Every structure is written in C-alpha cells, then in structure tokens.
Amino acid sequence: MAEEQSIAQMMQDMGKRAKVAAAELALASTDAKNKALLEAAGALKKNVRTILEANEKDLDYGREKGLSDAMMDRLALDRSRIIAIAKGLEAIAELPDPVGDTIAEWDRPNGLNIARVRVPLGVIGVIYESRPNVTADAGALCLKAGNAVILRGGSDSLHSSSAIHACLLEGLRTAGLPEDAIQLVATRDRAAVGEMLTMTGMIDIIVPRGGRSLVERVQSESRVPVFAHLEGICHVYIDGAADPQKALDIAVNAKMRRTGICGAAETLLVDESAEAIAIFVIGALLDAGCEVRGDDAMMALDDRVKPASDDDWKTEYLDAVISARFVSGVEGAISHVAENSSGHTESIITEDTETAETFLRKVDSAIVMHNASTQFADGGEFGMGAEIGIATGRIHARGPVGLEQLTSFKYQVRGTGQTRP
Amino acid sequence: MAEEQSIAQMMQDMGKRAKVAAAELALASTDAKNKALLEAAGALKKNVRTILEANEKDLDYGREKGLSDAMMDRLALDRSRIIAIAKGLEAIAELPDPVGDTIAEWDRPNGLNIARVRVPLGVIGVIYESRPNVTADAGALCLKAGNAVILRGGSDSLHSSSAIHACLLEGLRTAGLPEDAIQLVATRDRAAVGEMLTMTGMIDIIVPRGGRSLVERVQSESRVPVFAHLEGICHVYIDGAADPQKALDIAVNAKMRRTGICGAAETLLVDESAEAIAIFVIGALLDAGCEVRGDDAMMALDDRVKPASDDDWKTEYLDAVISARFVSGVEGAISHVAENSSGHTESIITEDTETAETFLRKVDSAIVMHNASTQFADGGEFGMGAEIGIATGRIHARGPVGLEQLTSFKYQVRGTGQTRP
Q1: Quick check: helix, strand or coil at residue A204?
Q2: Residue B104 in contact with partner chain A when CB distance is under 8 A
Q3: Under an 8 A CB cutoff, do B243 and A408 touch?
Q4: Interchain proximity A250–B372, CB inside 8 Å
Q5: A142, A268, A279, B92: which could form a disulfide with A147 (CB 3.0–4.6 Å)?
Q6: Chain A contact for B121 (CB, 8 A cutoff)
Q7: What does the alpha-carbon distance between residue B149 and residue B124 come to, in Å, rounded to a whole number?
Q8: Given a cut of 70, is residue A1 above it in pLDDT?
Q9: Does any CB of chain A come closer than 8 Å to the CB of residue B20?
C-alpha cells in the first residue's frame, strides 16, 4: 500500500514536471531540438561501452528469468545496434520541424485573418516492452515535435534503457533544454503503467509499443486517448480483372517479405472468376514456403492447401501462413473485409480503375491500396520519416503516426480592431 | 437492477444499430444527406402544431418540477423558434460536404500516389440539456458529416425532442437513408448517460452540450474521447502600445456584447505602462454597467472598482462582471494567462506587431487573437458554418467543432504493381 502510494506519487510528480517541460519545449527553436538530438547521438556513440555493460546486466537478468531466445534477441544490444540507434536520432534531426507550420489560412469578410497553426500535442506517454532502442526512437520523435515524453520501458531492459536515456539527457542539457522533456520511469513496478493510464490532465496521449497483450491492456484500461493498433489483419483482394503477374508479385510480397510486421497480409481474397490466377498465386505462395489455409474451392486448386477454420478469417498469423478464399467480386471482398478486418491495411489488385476506386472508397480501413503491397503500410514508406507506430483508431491520428500526428494546432486570429456586432 | 440492465441493453442495442447505420451513411451521397435535411426542415414546418403540443407537455412537467424561469425559457418553443430550427437544417444542407475531400496528396519516388481523404468519424454521442433545438442542430451536423448519432437530451425536453426527432426520421426515410442514423434515447433514466460514456468501440466521440456540471461529469467519467470545453475564462490583454480606442471598443465588446457565452472576456490585463488607457477602458466598462473587480492599482484608478479576491482570476462569471489587473508587459500577460486561463480564447490589443506575434506564439490556448474581440470565438464567425461546440482539448478537434472536425480520414494508396524491396 505504501509502495503503491509512492508509485502514484512518483508518477504524479513526473507528470507535473513533464507539463512544465512541455510548456518550455513548445517554444524551443528547431535548432535547439536538433542540437539535443545530435548531441544525444554523439553521446550514444561515445558511451557504447557503458551501454553494453548496462545491457549485460539486463541479459543476465533475462537469463535468470528464463526469457525465450526471441525475447533475449530483442533485448540484446551490440556496437552496430547502438550505432544504428544513434543514426536514427540523426535522421530525426534531419526531418522538418512541424511546429509552427500553417496548416490552413483564410480571410473573413470583416477583415479578420484566421490561421490554423501546428503546436505540439503536449505530454506523450510511451509504454513499451523489451527493445531498448524504443527509448531513443520514441524519445527523439516526441522531442522533435516539441512534446515532453514519459517513457515506460519493459522491466527486462531497465538498465539498457537507463543508459540510453542518460545519453538523451546529455543531449538536452547541452542544448539548454529541460531534462524533464524526456523522463524514464525507473522502476520495474507494474503499478507505474496503471498510473500512467489514468493521468488525464497530465498525459495527452498514450502510445503502447509492443505485443498484443500490452496493447490490449492499454486500450481497455486507459482513460487517456491511445494511438495504437491491436492487430493487422490485412487483406489482399485479387479481382477478376487483375494482371496475373502483379497479383502474384504483390500477394507473395505482401505475405512473405516480412511475415512478422503488422502490414503483412493475413488473408487472400480472390474473385470467383479468377480461378486461373488463384492457381498461379496460391502455387507461388506454397512454393515460397507459405502455408495456405483455404475454403473448399481453394483446396480443390492445389492439394497442398489445408482447410481453413472459421477462426482463420480473424487470425493475425505474423508467420508464413495465409488464409485464402473466393469471394463474389469486389462487393464480396468489401463485405468480407468489413466483417473480418482489423482496419489496418487492405489492397486490391485489378486493372479495372472503376473497380479499384469502389474498393478504395468503400473499404473503411486506415490504409487502402490499389496494385501495391500491404507491406508499404509504414511511415517511412509514406515519406513521413520515422513513425512511432500505426494507429487504427479514428481520432486524431489514423495510419502511420509520425511527427505531424504528434502535434495539435491552435487558431491565430489577426484583426485591426474588429468587434462583433 | 433489472431496470439498469435493461437500460444497458437498450444502449448497447442502439450502439450496434448506430454502427450499422454509420457504415451505410459513410457511403451516402451528398444529395441524399441534403435531401434528408431539407425534408426534415419541411416536416418541422408542417408539424409546428404537433411540436408545440409536445412542448406544452414538457412545460407542464417543468412547472410541476419547479424549473427556474431561465430553464423554462430554454425549454419553451414557439412558432418562430421552430421555423428557426428548420432554417438551421436548411443552412446545414447548404454547407459543403467534407466527406471525400482530399486533404493532402503526394507521390513517392517509387511511383506510389498517396492521398489523405476525409471520411466520417463514425458514431457520435451528443449529451445535452433542456434546449430541444439541439436535437435538430446536432443531429443535422452529424448527419451532414456522414456520422450516425445517438442523442441524449435533457429529461425536461423529452416530448419536444421526440417530436423534433420524428421530423428528422421523416427526412431520413424520404431520402432513403437508415433511420438508425439519428437515434434519440427516449428515457429519462440517467443511467443511459453513464452507459453512453463507457461505450468505447461503439461511440467514437462524445459531445456534451450544456452547463458546467454536465461537462464536468462527462469529462471525468467518459471512457470515450470528448470534444468539449469546461469553461471559457477568456482574457483581453491591453499592451502599452495599444490604440486606446481599439482597446476600449474591444474590451467592452468582448465583455458586454453577450456576457453569457463562452467567448466572453472574464479578465482584463493591462500593461503597467498603460495607466491612462486603463482609466479610459475601466471607466467605459463601469459606465456600460459592468462590475469591475480589480487589484489595488486598478482600484486606485476609479472608486467604483471593487477588490478582486484570488478566486476572481479563475472565475468564469458569464455575467456583467470582469476582473482586472496590471501586468508587467506582454510576458507578464502570458504568465498570467498560462496560470489562469481555461485554454479557450485570449486576445492582445497592441499596435506593435512584434509584441502581438510574441503573444500569438506563446499563449497556448485554442484561439489566440490580435486586435479582435474574443466574442469572435465561434464556428460561424470563423466561416465554418454551424458548430456543435468549442473544444479546448488538444486531440483531434481544438477550437470550434464544425463539419470538418466531425470527420476522420484514411489513406488511399494508388500503385502500378509496386512491391516493397
């Protein structure tokens, strides 16, 4: 109880300090923010040894705890990973500063000039798991957009994150920016997360970065608005008017380029009239080492196709597995997507522009594509620079969450003495 | 308990039907939506007598309940008020449809074309008090932006709201749109509000329209994101370089034009160097019938000035009362605002552009003005057409919430067969 109270108090205190820092940061120059990022990158390079020592402690802790090999790999740093983190900071320094941009401007008949101008969002809470690089990536992105950030990393990576955080603080200090701009929750106590999720009035947005169970907890418990996606059940629909080679290239790329990312395709829909293309594409997926789980008609095409269960249509495999079925044209595809998609990314393959436009208009997902691989669902590929994640919510940010999505706006009204009649 | 369960069930059912209607409405043509609005306006005009009879029942109920004169006035309808409501619907039909607008579009080096396109927000919950006209205004605005809406009016206006709602349904039917697009919670049970506030996954945004206690309850209890402002503690700052006549005109207009609106000024700040202007402006406010509560220096200027307490700097009077104090230049004004403002609207009066720009940049409110009355803080005055309210939050909507703010967006990506390397 005393412990819980002190965690609550600690978090409240961090929240207050973040708000003060956010007010200062909102007015910081682009130069100062970039200097902090570049100096932090320099500190990372200079302190490789210290960071690796800290990482060694985390790896010891992880071994004792019996973490899986995959988790140990996510946790592990080496010189090249640290250099990559530093380069990430330098890349964010290169991005244009969104703060102060005029988004829209117009004049009123009474002579008032009205401008909608970008300002920082305020205070961002980032809750993540074992990858220590998120400390730098998320901290830097929030900073560049003029926000204060409270970082709550996984307990497994506490030492590594702290060592990386120390480099960010060195950057802030050198640039003359408040150290409270990037705070790290330095406790393994999980009560800190629960506290963050209720800090309305102090934290403006929570961004969870990690596996399904983390995102699910944050989405269900948070009183603070959340930018996230729970899963990416992405669809590729091959229309009757598809170019067979494009269909094959895109389907195989969408599924197999990287199977573990949220933009990977999980379900292949094929127009009933495109049986020949289906044989061609399914064969290529199977040849590429992908397991295909199909409806009866798909199973009839290739005896390597396994039967799909009802659950398969709502499953994010994140693996070399795809569900596949025939649908009745683009409307059948749209219905299937409406019922089963997680609202992340869907793509139609067709040479018929009208059919494509129907799909692009009617499918209600964050990202809808025509003749392109769902694996392009990424802030970098969209030209936004770095992203902190992909959101499937409908409020404020939808799709890749980059610098612009980490801002709010205000109205500046310029008059010459106008009063309202 | 059984009653509570049935309210919960009723609301869940309404939520599900709203989601189905929202999916249909998202694809409805502008013509169909406009037809629904115009037919509803026609139905209102045709059914004036029925609506007045329903209103009479509410007024009887209100008299029995002993409602105040002000509340009875808000509740009361007459022919001209009903005609005004109908004209409001016609005006919303005239506004451009935001759905389908391309907000941004760009090409990538690999040839992908990316467009950010406006789509409806989804399902909006509107919780309001005794004014029955909100039924039509809010219903129409949500409809025009392609959203389904669940309206929960004050229990005092249940009959009037139901009669107006029937006209909206007639409009939807005639236009071939789903009646579930505009649903009215037809119960006086307050549990319905509590239920709405927890319907994440069914309701995308809650908009409370009413007094402070309603907004406070919604903001503190809602699990669904909220567009609202709790209060409008708006400031007018008269700089040392202000034009005295502009200062007087704007200060008197900002306070006295209508004292009961959220954009009315509540505090006057004057630069220490502008004592002569202060005498001039304070005198005009007092002469206009405004009570002035000042610091010692203000009291020394005019013996009609009453002493301000500490609370006065954080009070929204919504009445002919203003607090007034001297500050040390624009930085003093910015500090006072940062400490006391509700983040709604603030205005600086000065002929010095540089000082004005400092104020516009540094003050972190939804609307910041230069040489203009705070009473312009209004969607109509901004040229947005009708508004559903003003938001002081930082997420999604800030400032006037009009049609555009009631939309979300999605990305449409058009390719020619691109796969990700």
Answers
A1: coil
A2: no
A3: no
A4: no
A5: A142
A6: yes
A7: 5
A8: no
A9: no
Query: With pLDDT > 70 as the criterion, what percentage of chain A qualifies?
Result: 99
Average pLDDT over residues B225-229: 93
Q: Which domains does chain B have, with CATH numbers?
A: 2-227+401-412 (3.40.605.10), 234-381 (3.40.309.10)
Nearest CA in chain B to A347: B413
Could you give the CA distance from residue B304 to residue A39 in angstroms, rounded to a whole number?
58
Contact A418 B372 (CB under 8 A): yes
First to last CA, chain A: 59
A419 in reach of chain B (CB within 8 A): yes
Tens of pLDDT, residue by residue over B320-339, are 999 999 999 999 999 999 99
Asked if B339 reaches chain A (Cβ–Cβ under 8 Å), the answer is no
Question: Does A376 contact B246 at a Cβ distance shorter than 8 Å?
Answer: no
With 0-12 / 13-18 / 19 or more C-beta atoms within 10 angstroms meaning exposed / middle / buried, residue A316 is middle
**Distance separating alpha carbons of residues A179 and A194, to the nearest angstrom:** 24
Crossing angle for the helix pair B79-94 and B48-65, nearest 10 degrees? 120
Mean pLDDT along residues B278-295: 98
Query: Residue holding tokens 């908009």?
Result: B207
Residues of A in contact with B375 (CB under 8 A): 419-420
Closest by Cα among B74, B42, B41, B81 to B58 = B74
Residue A116 clears pLDDT 80, i.e. is over it: yes
Q: Do B420 and A370 touch (CB under 8 A)?
A: no
Burial class (CB in 10 A: 0-12, 13-18, 19+), A279: middle
ipTM of the predicted structure?
0.95
Distance CA B359, CA B348 (A): 7
- Is B410 in Cβ contact with A368 (below 8 Å)? yes
Chain B residues touching residue A395 (CB < 8 angstroms): 121, 204-205, 225, 395-396, 408
CB distance from A416 to chain B under 8 Å?
yes
Which residue of B lies nearest to A421 if distances are taken between CA atoms? B257
| DSSP per residue, A325-379 | EEESHHHHHHHHHHHH--SSEEEEE-S-HHHHHHHHHH--SSEEEEEE-GGG-ST
Reduce the secondary structure of B22-36 to three states and give it as a string: HHHHCCCCHHHHHHH
The pTM of the full predicted model, rounded to 2 decimals, is: 0.94
Written as six digits, the tokens of B368 are: 């910041």
* Residue A362 sits at the chain B interface (C-beta within 8 Å): yes
- The yes-or-no verdict on residue B56 having pLDDT over 60 is yes
Structure tokens at B333: 């004004």
Looking at residue A130, what is its pLDDT? 81
What tokens appear for B99 in the block? 């759905």
Residues 6 or more apart whose Cβ sits within 8 Å of residue A354: none
pLDDT tens digits along B242-264? 999 999 999 999 999 999 999 99
